[in-house]
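Q: A reviewer asked whether we had any structural model of the full assembly, not just the individual parts. We don't, so I'm hoping you can provide one. Inputs are below.
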Amino acid sequence: MTRSFISGNEAFAHGIRLASPGVISAYPITPQTIVVERLSEMVADGVIDSDFIHVESEHSALSCVIGASAAGVRTFTATSSQGLLYMAECLPYAAGGRFPIVMMNANRSVALPWNIYGDHRDSLSQLDCGWIQAYAQNAQEGLDLALMSYRIAERPDVSTPFMVNLDGFHLTHTYEMADVPEKEQADRFLPPYSTQNTIDFDTPRNLCFSAGPDHNTAFKAGEHAGLMRSRRAVIETEEEFSAIFGRKYTGLTEEYMCSDAEFILITLGSISGLCRDVVSSLRKSGMKAGLLRLRYMRPFPVEEVSAAVAGARSICVLEKDISFGFAGTVFINVCAAIQNAGICIPAMNLIGGLGGRDITEENIRAAFQDMASGKTGVVFIGMEDLKI
Amino acid sequence: MKPHLRTCIPEWRSDSLPDNTAYEAGFLVTKNSGWRDIRPVIDTKKCTGCLQCYLYCPDGTIARCGNKVSVDYDFCKGCGICAKMCRHDALRMEAERR
Amino acid sequence: MTRPTARNITEDEYFFGHKACAGCGGSLAVRMALKVLGSRAVAVLPAGCMSAVGFNFPQLCFANNAMISTFAGTASMMTGVEAGLRARGEKDYQVVGFAGDGGTADIGIQALSGAIDRNDNMIYICYDNEAYMNTGTQKSSLTPFGAYTTTTPAGVKIRGNIREKKNMFEIVAAHGIPYAATASIGYVDDYMAKVRKASEVKGMKYIHVLAPCPTGWGIRPDETVEYARMATDCGLWPLAEYGCGEYSLTRSMKDPGLLRAYIRGQKRFRHLRDPDIEYIESKRDARWEHINRSWKAP
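A: Here is a predicted structure for the entire assembly that you could use as a starting point for your response.
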């Protein structure tokens, strides 16, 4: 293990190096570029024995790794924002084919207006495409997710592609201390790549076929079942991970002071660190505040969310996203989960950080005040006077 | 090596359907013979085994058979290209008897 | 290199039992290429006629490894397959793509250009039936001048397709590709020889094979091969090769006078008037002037 001062992108590149994919294919887009630059250097220097394929678009990047996955090797791609949307056709393709591809998405705003900074509108717009979606909080978690994502995605009972999300700039470009594991540890953790849905010269296959009305539902239900089984795979993988690397993770969510909390803020990604500080501070002043960080959006932590907020008086979902015409996507998912669990408490949706705008400590404190006053509805931070 | 009709076709249930969109290559469950209203008939006396019909059949339903050719009537669609390609008048399209 | 013939090619059929229309030229192009390439060919086909007729679970019509790619991603998925097989340590395999005219010259041209640029070791075959036949005959950029399609109808104001057929062969060659060729399902011997040659050249290869569609062209199913031959014989579809910076014809124009019969015999051209045909002739003649001047004779 080496302790390194590195950016989120670099940490992620180390995770990928340790996983040793046979084929890497990516197209550059800010703020993802550094991860592919580092990997290109590693390939050029012979540090990893991967083929780095320079494609002419994101659509080709994902098409290419689908082909490589079908050929039977571990694969990696990375993108962001417009790039993710440009490859959108290939996302359900990879998931429907049950190809355990790993992709890093550097979360970035979606045009128009053009903006290169971080929010979650890119990845959350693709929640329904059949990929596992995890959101890292810091560089270390990014690196660890790079390794764990392969272990989870490639399990035969899961066989589902995995998208690891890192907040653009906040995570991808910020330097932090991170432990970079040794290759020998990674090899103990990650078994050699093996999947069933591959080209085979002894028993040839026809792949990526059509299935008409008679069989289509069964394939789609199978895809859903695979993604749902990743719930268990996440927990088991984190146990295996902890046994080798020593770092512990907490499954699909991470609770902070939720057990007796009256007011729980729910969020995801890099903003969680600041939220945690605010919760600590509010606790000191006597407010029973709590924070629930969603580590995964798919599979959605239905039970975890319901259990965490069961005793709360009200909740607020803080997210860098809006599903225009309704509410934030995370909020919609949270509400559906707790409604099914029969939990009926005021729920508020705070939309912030769009296009990289800072979410301040004051904004988060205000969210707790709003929760205490039982406020509900969708509010854009700084746009409280918005007339609709 | 050739895709072929399977005699044993599973009843597709959730436990017998493949887990993913990859399956045994060349797995055929239906014939194409029903598409046809004319069929090629070979006059073996006239056939010289020049194999032009074999070469140009879009469906690969004409096979080399010794010095001659034979037609797979399970999969022939009756397009008539073989008869057109025959330079020896050894292939005639005849109405399909129903 | 042994020239593939009806006698020495494999008896194996790799594309069989499919649901293509009777007399389909595209299916013949796929069938014969795979017979030349053999069991270690991995076929990649985008959305289009050949994937639609060959991959309907549980009716799977390729005997070899084959997969459907995204429509725009034929060449990039081929690249991934090739790189993946190489990374897996496989040897002696051949990655071959079969995309239609729309899949190649329209939606797939970007990925194709990328693959040629990378010079990946694979064969891309465009089976050109001159329109989006799988969706019901809509215009592609390889639809010839004058042709009726469902999106270029023969109206009162605009009579069929007003644009020329895109010159994919020379577009591809302009990349400096190691090997490119035009071929026709009307001359299968020549086509097979080019597929064989492509399989022996290292790097990226492109073969553009004219494959008439009886349904979309308005000809009888038994006329597919004849019309494919006529296209070449009348000079509208020159058979040629490109390699090492040089173009060479592999078959000369047989009879310029055949053009009229070629056009008049197809329903998709039946609205054309004599001046339209004269225009097509003049375009052909200008092209042949260029060919005769700068391409090697057969």
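A: Points you may want to mention in the reply: Residues 4-95 of chain B form a domain with the Alpha-Beta Plaits fold (CATH 3.30.70.20). The mean pLDDT of chain B is 94.
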